[in-house]
Amino acid sequence: MPEGPEIRRAADSLEVAIKNKPLTDVWFAFPELKTYASALIGQHVTQVETRGKALLTHFSGGLTLYSHNQLYGVWRVVKTGDTPETRRVLRVKLETADNTILLYSASDIEMLTPEQLKTHPFLLRVGPDVLDMTLTPRKVKERLLSTKFCNRQFSGLFLDQAFLAGLGNYLRVEILWQVGLTGDHKASQLSDAQLDALAQALLEIPRLSYHTRGQVDDNKHHGALFRFKVFHRDGEPCERCGTRIERTLLASRPFYWCPGCQH
């Protein structure tokens, strides 16, 4: 499943394609959404917002399209008039004179009024987004130490969108390697220095992934690029201590770690 950085990059591409351009055609697969299509023609998308793995497409008339890709949903950008070859099932089409954005295979799609946006169950439950640049390590540390989260093992906590939105399995793995901790640890067990390092990594690694993942490190002066240190690298030596990286299951998801320097 795509994690926060991938969802945010997808939202960026959707904004570039159609933001502030009048909609010339709108189509929805689900009957409960079809009634909105004609009213949206002539409006424009003002913003494509992410809340963790959910995507909010805001329209100039005040409505918001909520979508969650879950396992199979995917957005595509095409030139208007083009029809991609795919076996996926089309759910949403938002068309402008130049570009069209298409949502395939997703099943969790709703149209929300401003009032419904404030009371949507998922949006009420989801925690602060790791890609929200107003979120600071201090606030993350406070969240780690809160009664709600301080005694939960990181293996499950870092997959819970109620803690921090946008985290997922590869980020969980890489963050814990970065700070030398295992999935069995809890915030209540850590020293102040460990908490500070963890709070920093919980923001730094997702943001590095968002900004740089997929780029080629041709110019070292551009700074660090995100790359996997342990994820999908079982059997390889840890670059920090040389111990062989291992793979196990934690919270029903594959977990990669170094037994030599994560303890």
TrEMBL record:
One of its GO terms (molecular function) is damaged DNA binding. One of its GO terms (biological process) is base-excision repair. InterPro entries: DNA_glyclase_Znf_dom_DNA_BS, EcNei-like_N, Endonuclease-VIII, FPG_cat, FPG_N, H2TH_FPG, Ribosomal_uS13-like_H2TH, Znf_DNA_glyclase/AP_lyase. It comes from the Bacteria. DNA binds at residues 70, 125, 169. Pfam families: Fapy_DNA_glyco, H2TH, zf-FPG_IleRS. Its EC number is 3.2.2.-, 4.2.99.18. Binds 1 zinc ion per subunit. The active site is at 2 (schiff-base intermediate with dna), 3 (proton donor), 53 (proton donor), 253 (proton donor). Residues 2-111 form the Formamidopyrimidine-DNA glycosylase catalytic domain. The keyword Metal-binding applies. SUPFAM superfamilies: Glucocorticoid receptor-like (DNA-binding domain), N-terminal domain of MutM-like DNA repair proteins, S13-like H2TH domain. Keywords: DNA damage, DNA repair, DNA-binding, Endonuclease, Glycosidase, Hydrolase, Lyase, Metal-binding, Multifunctional enzyme, Nuclease, Zinc, Zinc-finger. Its cofactor is Zn(2+). Residues 229-263 form the FPG-type domain. It catalyses: 2'-deoxyribonucleotide-(2'-deoxyribose 5'-phosphate)-2'-deoxyribonucleotide-DNA = a 3'-end 2'-deoxyribonucleotide-(2,3-dehydro-2,3-deoxyribose 5'-phosphate)-DNA + a 5'-end 5'-phospho-2'-deoxyribonucleoside-DNA + H(+). The keyword DNA damage applies. Belongs to the FPG family. Involved in base excision repair of DNA damaged by oxidation or by mutagenic agents. Acts as DNA glycosylase that recognizes and removes damaged bases. Has a preference for oxidized pyrimidines, such as thymine glycol, 5,6-dihydrouracil and 5,6-dihydrothymine. Has AP (apurinic/apyrimidinic) lyase activity and introduces nicks in the DNA strand. Cleaves the DNA backbone by beta-delta elimination to generate a single-strand break at the site of the removed base with both 3'- and 5'-phosphates. NCBIfam families: PRK10445.1 (NF007763). This is Endonuclease 8. It comes from Kluyvera cryocrescens. The lineage of its organism: Bacteria, Pseudomonadati, Pseudomonadota, Gammaproteobacteria, Enterobacterales. The gene is nei.
